[in-house]
Amino acid sequence: MKQNKDLFKFFFWWKRKENEQDVLGFDVSFGDEFGNGMGPRKFSYNELAKATNNFADDEKLGEGGFGAVYKGVLRDSSTNVAVKRISRSSKQGIKEYASEVKIISRLRHKNLVKLIGWCHEKELLLAYEFLLHGSLDFHLFKGRSLLPWEIRYKIVQGLASALLYLHEEGDFCVLHRDIKANNIMLDSAFNAKLGDFGLARLVDHGKGSQTTLLAGTMGYIAPECHRKGKASKESDVYSFGVVTLEIACGRRSIEPTFDEQEVSLVDWVWEAYRNEMLLGVADKKLSADFNAKEMECLLHVGLWCVHPSPSMRPSIRQAIQVLNFEAMLPNLKCKVPIPNYDIPSTFVIKTSEPSSLSITLPR
User: Where, in this chain's numbering, is ATP bound (predicted)?
Assistant: First the structure.
């Protein structure tokens, strides 16, 4: 690749049948760091195959709608990595690969998962830093461990710091569009690192929003996105608020098997606030072993961020000021107002190969 050239085309031969190949071509804009060694490196297929023992099943860390993730060790540096292998059948996965490489390669922040390298030689592969404690989802909902309160509060602050960087501190505003517990990874010290930028979009700071196809994960999507599919800083803040409430309450945003009044986490917490029983929603697994002032703060910030009207939500900077006790708790109304737009009662959900929607179900 030539230096000082932002745009280039690459073509990838995608094997669909044993003796048949189709050509898929797409454009991806990369910064100069790909040519001068400052950013992620290009791997050969053989390097990443060897690192993962040829993508052995016992190295698999997990699997999503667009492919599986494997633990690997780079032979030349003994570095542990997590290798995402895009599914051969996923055209949406190909788009996510392009978005991921284009966007995350430009980002540098301690609370973002670091992209180590990429490969589109025989398959679409992405290599990330390996994070010892896996995803927040595993700890909160799958019993991998009981996260103590101090760590939970630190995770929220770390996630907020990452979002501030994406929204306000870079050359472009980055809309993540898929903030959820499963995309928040934890390092050896349980520091939060936001990952999976497959649905992310770059927008100009002055614009701050983008009309696009509905994308994200059910339970985390802001209500205004259902009507217009308009991603914005405010819709990212909504998703952040949902995760904040999940961390405080120790349950998923949607629990279909719960009693009707408790299925939606957001509605359940709003009702507790209205009845002046807010601390009653705190995660019972903590056995009341938490700082009550911090718990109250976390729940207030969570509700502030999930306000149904985008204009009533805080910026992520305002949320951070409250979380750091540099500003007063928000003045929330006892009953959340109904937004002044209609939300469709039904819509199509597809978990793979979406043609008009990019929505996934929480796992």
Answer: 84
